[in-house]
Amino acid sequence: MTVDAPPSWATTIPHEPGVAKPDPILVVDGVNRRFGGLLAVDVGHLEVQRGAITALIGPNGAGKTTLFNLLTGFDNPDSGSWRFAERDLSGVPAHRVAHHGMVRTFQLTKSLALLTVMENMKLGATRQRGERFWGALLRPLWRGQEKEIEERADALLERFKLSHVRDEFAGALSGGQRKLLEMARALMVQPELVMLDEPMAGVNPALKQSLLSHVKQLRTEGMTVLFVEHDMDVVYDISDWVVVLAQGRVIAEGPPAAIGANPKVIDAYLGTHFAEGGGEALGELGPDERLEVDQVGLGEPLTPGGAADA
Amino acid sequence: MAAPAAAQTEDPGSTSTTVGAAPDPSAGAVRGRLLDLKETDASEDDVPVPGVRITVEDSDGQEAGTAETDSGGLFRIPLPGEGTYTAKLDEDSLPDGVSVADDEIEFTLGPGQSRTLLFALNAPNRRTEGKVDLFLQSLVDGTYFGLLLALASVGLSLIYGTTGLVNFAHGELVTMGAIFAFWFNQTLGWPLILSGVLAVLATGAVGWLLDAAFWGPLRRRGTGNTALMVISIGVALAVLNLYLYVFGGRTRPYADYRAQPAIDFGTVSLPPKRIIGALLCLFFLVAVATALQRTRTGKAMRAISDSRDLAASSGINVDRVIRFVWLFGAGLAALGGILFSLSQDVNFEQGSSMLLLLFAAITLGGLGAAYGALIGGFVIGLFVSVSAVWVPTELKNVGALVVLILVLLVRPQGILGARERIG
Amino acid sequence: MDWGLIFRSTGQAAIGPDACYYALAAAGLNVHIGYTGLLNFGQAAFGAAGAYGLAVAVVTYGVSFWAALFIGLLVSIVLALVLGFPTLRLRTDYLAIVTLAAAEIIRLVVRSVRYTATLGGTDGLQAFGDAFFRLNPFDGGSYTPLEFRPDQVWLLVCAWPLVVVVLLVTFLLMRSPWGRVVKAIREDEDAVRSLGKNTYWYKMQSLMLGGVFGALAGIVFAMSKQSVNPDDYGTRFTFTAVAVMILGGTARVVGPVVGSVIFIGVLQFLDVFLRQAIDAGLIPGWVPIDVNKVAIIRLIFVGATLVLLMIYRPQGILGDRREVAIRDR
Q1: ipTM value of the model?
Q2: Same domain for A49 and A155
Q3: Which chain A residue lies closest to C199 (C-alpha atoms)?
Q4: Could you give the 3-state DSSP secondary structure of residue A132?
Q5: B365-397, pLDDT tens digit by residue?
Q6: A113 vs C187: CB contact, 8 Å cut-off?
Q7: B329-374 residue pLDDT tens
Q8: CA dist., res. B273 & res. B276, Å (int)
Q9: What are the Cα distances from residue C49, in Å, to B17, C33, C42, C59, C60?
Q10: Architecture of B5-116 per CATH?
């Protein structure tokens, strides 16, 4: 497994929480979300670099998915604001967020089971004339646009190797295929920023490689990717920058190589590991390896070995 | 001043049938409507008088039928056929401040004929007597009704919590208890207390069987929650009409404790059966809460309501616990039904007309939240009764349902319910 | 036993006004439940909106029949907006309860003494359809072989094409991108929101569309009885329509008509057959049955049909077993 060299901006800016990026597409300020007494998200300042792949990691219950929900309008914060591509998106409802070029996927895949794969894809296209009630009744109004959309969808299906299941019900696909479909469907929106919530969860190793290359391909095409992931191999492999969330706060930021060495990060993971007996990233490590991480401390990445050949 | 006649012909359809029932097929009937006429001419000031007992005796002095006026002041007494009858109004059942000039009316009925009876009510000074007394009395009535609803809705809530089934047939379990008790008491002639205990046990057993033979297998087949809900609607419709078929459309009282003289507590008065009934409710509610909190099965019920998968993976025998939920849920519903009939008599649709209030109760509490039903039921029962002080009685259930919708507007997940996780 | 009567009566019911308005009501529910996944158990309220909108406008306010028809439809749209505003955010199970409750609220208010002057109370309202029946081109005599009355024939000649129009609109919408969005909402609303669709508004449109279908059902119902009564729009109306929809096949365009013709036909067959059998003394004496209880048996049958259909053939007559299997995965 090879890791690409980090982009130059990632090496020049300080590796600290809330650091300003040279060309941020998303800027989050003072976002708070409380559930009862629990402060689930408490992000003071966070910037996401345009055209980069940023990983959002953290122990279970760190508030990663809640932050996703807040940024995409699926939940409302108690306070705070955020700007996406120079537009204030705070308080914008979920369906409008997508129109601004920000689209997300879900941790539990939401393929629309009784729609075919093609219908799933076509749903992703925005500003369809045929989606208006009265327009829908008159086919000539939308037939041309529908054809364009179908061509675009076919191209994406080809790329994601789903062409052969084009007319199957999405509910009949395997778990991995559904993940692929969900990502492809999100791209139908033609977003600037794709937010993936655990894209690799439950995907078999063979498909995982293909998913990884798709994500990298997005960056090549100029899209920005923000993703939540527990699999540290994946994080090291594809991300340009890593943001670590613990108990709702950003506790560390930096390129992947630097992040594993950060004692705060180790504390956060080990702390929850020992406290709850179930920190996921480290839970995968054997006891000896865990000890090793603890001893090695600074300088060595927090990984079961994947990044050793960096 | 004496207000004159106070009855008018009405279609005596029930005021809140939940699952459609066939019209009562019996031949002859008397019907009427008791209204407390105000001094003004405006008919909207007339207040229907609920809970008044009318008994009809045939020419031999044998009782031919009896009914209490419902929330709209309506009563309907099906009669066996032609003949001469005497209708008697039970003056003790009239609210304070209302009296009747002539409490007996003799009438004849032709074959297949229906008649409307007129009892002249006079209500000299109710307005001056004030709403405070009325309020206190409705507070007391509401407490009884609220406790009873709480009891009946526990099962509905726990069944939803543990299995995901929104059981539209829960009202039929309530009725089942009342009918079983009626059967033991009136047909077999056993004392009501024994009959009640047996009816609760029998209905509990039916609940157990329902889960073992019907809902459990459906669940294991992987039937979706919406499908289960529709199935329960079908069950409710079929069973309700089965009751109508077997029990008939008449409202019939138990043999014991019928016309208990009320004990006067100053402004409010209560028959002892209601006090004992309320205490019984209270006892069982505390018992349920304690059981949920302390016993292994109770804790398991709550755990399954929180997260079924987690509970199953931590070694709880989910199916066994669900069977207990059905056993206890059905038994408590039956008890609620019997206590209801103690004051309102037995009717084939008493449970189904309560169903929406039960839903309101558990929705208010948050669907599936273990203690939500207890609180929600009590609040709804109290609200329904107390609102009758200001709202026309025929619309008092409307108030509760509107409150339900308003609460959901503010908190879509109910008062105690948990939000769903997105993503 | 008069088999001629039995079959004539069954045929009459199968293409008669009952089958017609239940087809319309079920077509509305099909839009709500079948395509959009909105568990609306308050279809009776939309029926009442149409019927009462029409009747009250004509009887109480003296509006002309034709204008009143539009008022009926308008009332159902307003009802959809009022009902949808608070409820469309709710989870499916809450929605089912709340729509049922809303329909009951409406029925209780309509039948209350307080509004008798306007809404007719429990006596309902009559004589609002004269303008329609004056146009009846069919003269006296019975229309063999089913022996409909002339005014019934006139109503059916107008109402069944209405059903065709309703199904056509459903067909056109459901093959369009609009239909795709609506069906996607049924599968997973959050996914659709994340793709930039205003799901709340789509659900509202769906509620209005199916509500208008329900209002048409109520209008046909009212015209066939030439009377409106609050208790006609109780839960029995909704649940019969649900049974019809499921029998025909959920999310199948012609499902409501197939379901309605068969279900209403079978109900009538059962009814007349039982009455005949009892009259002819074909039922042994130990069976506790008499003619008065046939109406009850009908309803037991409706309930049992719902249960058995959902268990053994949830896809109905026209549905696809495979789809049910995928849904339950």
Answers
A1: 0.88
A2: no
A3: A95
A4: coil
A5: 776 666 788 888 888 999 888 888 887 777 888
A6: yes
A7: 999 999 999 999 988 889 999 999 899 899 888 888 776 666 788 8
A8: 5
A9: 19, 19, 11, 15, 15
A10: Sandwich (2.60)
Nearest CA among C168, C160, C313 for reference residue C250? C313
Asked if B222 reaches chain A (Cβ–Cβ under 8 Å), the answer is no
Window 384-423 of B: residues touching A by CB (8 A cutoff) are 421-423
Taking CB atoms and an 8 Å limit, are C177 and A131 in contact across chains? yes
Nearest residue on chain B to C229, judged by CA atoms?
A: B11
3-state DSSP assignment of residue A124:
helix
Query: To 5 degrees, how large is the angle CA C185–CA C186–CA C192?
Result: 20
Do both A42 and A165 map to the same domain?
no
Contacts C250 to A, Cβ<8 Å: none
Contact B422 A108 (CB under 8 A): no
Q: What pTM was computed for the model?
A: 0.83
Chain A residues close to B422, C-beta within 8 Å: 65, 69, 74-75, 106
Query: What is the residue-averaged pLDDT of chain B?
Result: 80
Between CA B84 and CA B59 the distance in angstroms is: 6
Question: Which amino acid belongs to residue B75?
Answer: F
When CB atoms are compared, the residue of C183, C198, C326 closest to A172 is C326
Phi then psi for residue B247, to 5 deg, are -90, -25
- Whether C306 sits inside 8 A of B25 (CB atoms) is no
Q: For residue C235, what are the domain limits?
A: 3-323
Provide the domain limits for residue A118. 112-172
Fold for domain B131-410? ABC transporter involved in vitamin B12 uptake, BtuC (1.10.3470)
A92 and A237 co-located in one domain: yes
- Domain presence at residue C329: no
Are both A207 and A59 inside the same structural domain? yes
- Residues of A in Cβ contact (< 8 Å) with B421: 65
* A227 falls within a domain: yes
Chain A, chain B: beta-carbon pairs less than 8 Å apart: 14
Partner B contacted by C293 (CB < 8 A): yes
- Segment-wise mean pLDDT, segments of 10 residues, chain A, 310 residues: 70 90 95 88 95 93 92 93 93 93 91 94 94 95 96 96 94 90 95 94 84 92 93 90 93 89 80 45 39 34 36
> Within this chain, do residues A96 and A207 fall inside the same structural domain, yes or no?
yes
